[in-house]
Design brief:
The protein is of the alpha+beta class. The protein has helices at residues 14-23, 51-54, 57-62, 107-116, 126-139, 148-161, 208-213, 252-257, 269-287, 304-314, 337-347, 371-382, 420-427, 437-445, 457-460, 470-480, 482-489; strands at 3-8, 31-38, 41-48, 67-73, 88-90, 96-104, 164-172, 176-181, 190-196, 199-205, 217-221, 226-231, 236-240, 263-264, 267-268, 295-298, 322-324, 348-350, 359-364, 387-392, 431-434. Helix 4 (107-116) packs across helix 5 and helix 11 (337-347) packs across helix 12. It binds adenosine monophosphate (AMP). Catalyzes the formation of phosphoribosylamine from phosphoribosylpyrophosphate (PRPP) and glutamine.
């Protein structure tokens, strides 16, 4: 998963983009980048690391200009090397720089078509392919000054060729900012504005919280298939560019990824999580009606809102029995099972008094590999718990994600080919309960009944774009398994410092 930002402002945008990226940091901690348009030149800084580490004062001083885009990266199919940090850049036509959140599912075919067009793609990133496709379509216009319609025609042709998930922000030198969302709206994108004495500033971002944090007012979500064009003069244009757009946003944004203070497609992430708690609480009450649970304990942080609602619904005490070290990275992207196990213990610590002599219900948002839950159950027992039950706010994750979330290959998923009892035994729980998929969908839909469908492939194997078959999953498998990740990590270390890639 990644986070993107784009702004056409009335004054320098470097600090605003930086601030917005820090608020989107939860969407990717692997690399960060900002590009600004300074007169006739792009200023670019990107490198591996957290936003606060990638940008030093000297970089910020160089990122001059009133328009720019930013990106935080979480690696999925691509590599973790600094050369694949975003935004990407291509010098023709005009000079275009692009930031992408998502994953394309037909990259092999697209890469081949670009070779045939004599376009060079320098990395294994699907985002660089997307940039070249857009550039190739804009090249066709042959004009020196782009009209909004020319930009939209190019986006329409990009939609016609690409499959998969993409929310994109791209800057075109001398022209403006174009942002668009795939025809299913799988990845989120929101549009906002800020009135100043000299005119209106516009901003797009992956989550509304980024706009809130920098004082922009949310106007609306970008619709599936829609493109937004903001000229450097500050005029806003919009057009639907896809042939058959239809909403199917990724449900995992609500389960885990997005911040609770964001709203995606008019759905409050926080409210949807409270609903998940209510649904799961009802299920526990009806399926375990003679339970002996003494206390509900969340596995921080995403599940706290969910667990609180389960406790309320079951009339049980809620206690924060685990304390999280906030200054340690997420465990999921660490390749290798041993590393992941150690990392859980470094990240969480149990308060013994909350466990001793009690039957506890631990709540997490989801179980992916089962590493976290197994370790945490062990910690709960070491802290003196008598019985440890486990509740997951998401259903069993049985299929890999191909739309931009780093969900491991099928055989690394603990629920792949296993039922709840088998999972409970493997992670050492006295009992386990998963949310039903219909309840999860209902919990999210309650906040915006206009959205009839969500992208739920990790739970049901139904890939919304219709082009994902076993051979594609095998291909993803090869790119993503732990061995492949370990090899890619060897690649990290090259600290790319690209400044002033294009001089006036
Ligand atoms: P696991 O140990 O693999 O079962 O990890 C499950 C935990 O990782 C859950 O507590 C989630 O909060 C979190 N999680 C779920 N999906 C992801 C993801 N794609 N990236 C990082 N963390 C995740």
């Amino acid at each position: 998963m990644c986070g993107i930002v784009g702004i056409v402002g009335q004054s320098s945008v470097n600090q605003t983009i930086y601030d917005a990226l820090t608020v989107l940091q939860h969407r990717g901690q692997d690399a960060a980048g900002i590009v600004t348009i300074d007169g006739n030149a792009f200023r670019l800084r990107k490198a591996n690391g957290l936003v606060k580490d990638v940008f030093e004062t000297k970089h910020m001083q160089r990122l001059q200009g009133n328009a720019g885009i930013g990106h935080v990266r979480y690696p999925t199919a691509g590599s973790s090397s600094a050369s694949e940090a975003q935004p990407f850049y291509v010098n023709s036509p005009f000079g275009i720089s692009l930031a992408h959140n998502g994953n394309l599912t037909n990259t092999v075919d697209l890469a081949q078509s670009l070779v045939e067009k004599r376009r060079h793609v320098n990395t294994t990133s699907d985002s660089e392919i997307l940039l070249n496709l857009l550039a190739d379509e804009l090249q066709e216009t042959r004009t020196l000054s782009l009209t909004a319609d020319e930009v939209f025609d190019a986006v329409a042709k990009v939609h016609a060729q690409t499959r998969g998930a993409y929310a994109v922000a791209a800057m075109i030198i001398g022209q403006g900012l174009v942002a668009f969302r795939d025809p299913y709206g799988i990845r989120p994108l929101v549009l906002g504005k800020h009135e100043t004495a000299t005119g209106t500033e516009y901003m797009v971002a992956s989550e509304s919280v980024a706009l809130d944090a920098v004082g922009f007012e949310v106007m609306r979500d970008v619709a599936p298939g829609e493109a937004i064009y903001i000229s450097l003069a500050g005029e806003l244009f919009t057009r639907q560019c896809a042939v058959n757009p239809s909403y199917a946003p990724c449900i995992f944004e609500f389960v885990y990824f997005a911040r609770p203070d964001s709203a995606i497609d008019k759905i409050s992430v926080y409210a949807s999580r409270v609903n998940m708690g209510a649904k799961l609480g009802e299920k526990i009450k009806s399926e375990w009606f003679e339970h002996d649970i003494d206390v509900v304990i969340p596995i921080p942080e995403t599940s706290c809102d969910i667990a609180l609602e389960i406790a309320r619904c079951m009339d049980l005490p809620y206690r924060q029995g685990f304390v999280k070290n906030r200054y340690i990275g997420r465990t999921f992207i660490m390749p290798g099972q041993q590393e992941r196990k150690k990392s859980v213990r470094r990240k969480l610590n149990a308060i013994d008094t909350e466990f001793r002599g009690k039957n506890v219900l631990l709540v997490d948002d989801s179980i992916v590999r089962g590493t976290t839950s197994e370790q945490i159950i062990e910690m709960a027992r070491e802290a003196g718990a008598k019985k440890v039950y486990f509740a997951s706010a998401a259903p069993e994750i049985r299929f890999p994600n191909v739309y931009g979330i780093d969900m491991p290959t099928s055989n690394e998923l603990i629920a792949h080919g296993r039922d709840a009892d088998e999972i409970a035994e493997l992670i050492g729980a006295d009992g386990i309960i998963f949310q039903d998929l219909t309840d999860l969908v209902e919990a999210v839909k309650l906040e915006n009944p206009d959205i009839k469908r969500f992208e739920t492939s990790v739970f049901d194997g139904n890939y919304i774009t219709g082009d994902v078959d076993q051979s594609y999953l095998d291909h993803v498998n090869q790119l993503r398994n732990d061995d492949a990740k370990a090899n890619r990590l060897k690649d990290i270390g090259t600290n790319l410092e690209l400044h002033n890639v294009c001089h006036p």
